[in-house]
Records
---
Amino acid sequence: AQSVTQLDSHVSVSEGTPVLLRCNYSSSYSPSLFWYVQHPNKGLQLLLKYTSAATLVKGINGFEAEFKKSETSFHLTKPSAHMSDAAEYFCVVKAARQLTFGSGTQLTVLP
Amino acid sequence: EAGVVQSPRYKIIEKKQPVAFWCNPISGHNTLYWYLQNLGQGPELLIRYENEEAVDDSQLPKDRFSAERLKGVDSTLKIQPAELGDSAVYLCASSLAGSETQYFGPGTRLLVL
């Protein structure tokens, strides 16, 4: 069985400072991992995905994530937060054609 | 290119009433998913269709929930009768056959009073 744990339900950063959203996964197989973002009243949007190629994955809007098998982690980072980054972020693991979502991290960006 | 379309966006009903949600996936996407998202949680899969065939409905509460995708394009999710605990956001997603990337609609927010 596969699962993901998002270690922080809320993260608050100041505009222009780095963002770190933490995710640990559990999977019986070599996993495919994703980060999705959900803005209020909008659909979930794919930020990036890891599918056993490069361990450092670059996504849209300046986000990137690093797959670390030894730590079973897939943390999402961005060097400098923008106000438009305020949203809920979901770490997702895929196995057997099924997505399993984490409980989400609400990112607040302070001016 | 149009994204996944869902309607209605919002629905308020009294308990024990029926309700239906509609989804139009991205053109050409063979695979369609329905998810349930409770407040403060991540989405959970209810059912997955490959064309018109439901290939994974193990999480669908079949006593009150039903779904169909008759022509392998649009899909309808129905609840009858609705219960207070069904208040949630119902998300539809679609993907190309064999693709890992799912595209999500904006969801239908259901409130059962």
---
Amino acid sequence: EAGVAQSPRYKIIEKRQSVAFWCNPISGHATLYWYQQILGQGPKLLIQFQNNGVVDDSQLPKDRFSAERLKGVDSTLKIQPAKLEDSAVYLCASSLGLGPPYEQYFGPGTRLTVT
Amino acid sequence: GENVEQHPSTLSVQEGDSAVIKCTYSDSASNYFPWYKQELGKGPQLIIDIRSNVGEKKDQRIAVTLNKTAKHFSLHITETQPEDSAVYFCAASGGSQGNLIFGKGTKLSVKP
């Protein structure tokens, strides 16, 4: 079974530029998550989708971050404009359904450096 | 909201020794407590989890204990091996949406 795919793996941009990350979840997984992991910390949930609808985006800085999951499969996360404090690893995860007992499977992440 | 504290932040043990990582949570409504292992350049991977109706769970060399009264849970790794070296995260979840709140992680180093 293929895992969660993310691209790109690394991205370096200057502040005020825009950037987009892509995620392809495990086939058949209805729930998709985007997390932000700052160096030395645990992942923090940014947004959660159930199929193509948003379940929770309370931690998403909506003035600069946006995300979509068209057709309930792939998802993109965008930052515009980027700030220095956005430097982090952005993790995508997917699960069969909402909450336990459904395990969340994580992708390898995209490491973003904002200079 | 939920807050998860994790200790220690770093842990170094000799191969074959045991390692213990402890977490506390604040929301008494939390009922699901997974542990993740993250290797360099990879995403977190679930290694074991426990639900609030269980006090202890084992899977080979890994065990997790839960004390609901004290609101803390622990990961125990016995007979550690060099390949156990990684960052370990605890998490807690309680809402219907199952959102996970993670601790800050413990970097475990197992010396041969």
